[in-house]
TrEMBL record:
One of its GO terms (molecular function) is heparin binding. Gene3D superfamilies: Complement Module, domain 1 (2.10.70.10), Thrombospondin type-1 (TSP1) repeat (2.20.100.10). Belongs to the CCN family. One of its GO terms (cellular component) is cytoplasm. This is CCN family member 3. The lineage of its organism: Eukaryota, Metazoa, Chordata, Craniata, Vertebrata. Keywords: Cell junction, Cytoplasm, Disulfide bond, Gap junction, Glycoprotein, Growth factor, Secreted, Signal. InterPro entries: CCN, Growth_fac_rcpt_cys_sf, IGFBP-like, TSP1_CCN, TSP1_rpt, TSP1_rpt_sf, VWF_dom. It comes from the Eukaryota. Residues 1-32 form the signal peptide.
Length: 262
């Protein structure tokens, strides 16, 4: 099958009349080549990556994952029209610059995976890559007070586990499994209040980007004045519950805890 890279639709609107004629000729030739076979679709539609549309191919045959900007496309592998992309068949006669990665040559518009953690595309001599592994941050919680990532044999991406002890999270300066990253983590600070619910924090670079960040958690040294609590209980106000929310924000990750008081 003939393949060309996906192109933004705005560029198509700017083409000359001769360019549009060439596009039509290539489109008819490609349709005759790609749509000549009978439909043979899988029983279940494919699972597309996050942000990729599931579309019907241009032969009206099967549901496929739409091709993205710079990726090779055809009538059986159409571009993502939701992002105003189209398959520029006029580029069939044009050769873009190739890409060289580690001695391997890739054609312009060719997509490849140099490792299981990255998906790359050669675009006229330039290589663009996107990560395949999640880069989320997990905050400490009662169920997982010391979360950290580990590499599991047989799996590509690191996964979260909760098996470390508090002693392992005192100030560290050890070689991380991540390349060229020395993990440094301070101890948790003292609670911001001497009684009742308060905040404790620490500084660490134990994350995918190896960048220093501030993490916070709920702490309580002791309950506040018990005599004051007794006075509240014998007051004339009716007994009631009050729901209090504590919210934290860290790199678009929100952790929400709540405690019931009377």
């Amino acid at each position: 099958n003939s393949h060309t890279p996906c192109t933004h639709w705005l560029k198509h609107k700017m083409c000359t009349s001769s360019c549009c004629i060439l596009l039509l000729v290539c489109l008819l030739q490609t349709e005759a080549q790609d749509c000549s076979q009978p439909c043979a679709c899988p029983a279940d539609p494919p699972l597309c990556p996050l942000g990729t549309s599931l579309v019907l191919d241009d032969c009206g045959c099967c549901k496929v994952c739409a091709r993205q900007l710079g990726e090779p496309c055809s009538l059986l592998e159409p571009c993502d029209h939701h992002k105003e992309l189209y398959c520029d068949y006029a580029l069939l006669t044009q050769e873009g610059q190739t890409c060289d990665l580690g001695g391997v040559i890739y054609r312009s518009g060719e997509s490849f995976q140099p490792s299981c953690k990255h998906h790359c595309v050669c675009m006229n001599g330039e290589i663009g890559c996107v990560p395949m592994c999640a880069s989320d941050i997990r905050l400490p919680s009662p169920d997982c007070p010391y979360p950290h990532r580990i590499q599991i044999p047989g799996k590509c991406c690191e996964e979260w586990v909760c098996g470390e002890t508090p002693q392992d999270h005192h100030y560290q300066s050890v070689v991380s499994p991540r390349d060229n990253c020395i993990v440094q983590t301070t101890e948790w600070s003292e609670c911001s209040a001497t009684c009742g619910m308060a905040i404790s924090s620490r500084i660490t670079n134990d994350n995918q980007r190896c960048q220093l960040e501030r993490q916070t958690r709920i702490c309580m040294v002791r309950p506040c004045n018990s005599q004051q609590e007794k006075e509240i209980k014998v007051s004339l106000f009716p007994f009631s519950y009050k729901l209090i929310y504590f919210q934290f924000y860290l790199y678009n990750t929100q952790s929400q805890l709540f405690r019931l008081y009377n």
